[in-house]
Write a structure and sequence with these properties.
Number of helices: 8
Helix content: over 70%
Largest sheet: none
Distance between the termini: 47 Å
Number of strands: 0
Mean pLDDT: 81
Radius of gyration: 22 Å
Strand content: under 5%
Shape: elongated
Oligomer: single chain
Structural class: mainly alpha
Number of domains: 1
Order of helices and strands: HHHHHHHH
Length: 198
């Protein structure tokens, strides 16, 4: 009943994803409030969110949800919070994340710093996945290995620092939210008990 009369095209969907109608601030506030309201301990929520934020710095796009869930499970964190934490990596932040992780990882590995990342793949490269899988993976690593390796190395300190910072921020916010919620529920319960006693 409330569906659009005309479905948005691809370009419109991309625009709505990058620039939500309510604004980026509203989208982030939704994620923030949704995170605080997860039914789990402050540690589980904060650890899960931090895991998602950390994984979002790795170059494994398409696997962030899975990797974040596995890391959250290892840390005994909330898997739902880890999914929300991956929102730290998004189309607006990825260019900065990739540039920073690549250059820091390159610095650690002894590479030269670069202002841009260029990938040179031959024509028909992706079709090789179906026609010549062995050649595809060999060429894939030759072309992307020198980029993915420093990005992965750089993701560890940068993602780790962001994850730790967000862990303490989320833990404090969730603990405060849950404490206030308990106080409201206690006040409401006492009020109802007082009315029942009258």
């Amino acid at each position: 009943m409330f569906a659009r009369r005309e479905k948005p095209g691809l370009l419109m969907r991309v625009r709505l994803f990058l620039f939500p109608p309510g604004g980026l601030r509203r989208a982030w506030m939704y994620i923030w409030h949704r995170t605080k309201r997860i039914s789990a301990t402050p540690y589980a929520i904060a650890a899960g969110f931090a895991a998602g934020a950390f994984v979002s710095f790795t170059p494994f796009i398409g696997f962030h949800f899975i990797l974040a869930g596995i890391l959250a499970w290892i840390l005994r964190g909330s898997i739902l919070a880890s999914a929300l934490g991956t929102a730290v990596g998004n189309p607006l932040t990825f260019p900065f994340i990739w540039w920073a992780t690549y250059n820091l990882g390159g610095l650690i590995l002894g590479y030269d710093l670069k202002s841009e990342i260029s990938i040179d793949l031959p024509h028909g490269f992706w079709m090789m996945l179906f026609t010549q899988p062995g050649t595809f993976f060999h060429m894939f690593w030759e072309a992307l290995g020198p980029i993915l390796l420093p990005m992965l190395v750089g993701a560890i300190p940068i993602g780790g620092a962001v994850g730790i910072g967000l862990y303490f921020l989320v833990y404090k916010a969730v603990a405060r939210y849950q404490e206030r919620r308990r106080e409201r529920l206690d006040t409401r319960r006492r009020h109802l008990q007082g009315q029942a006693a009258e």
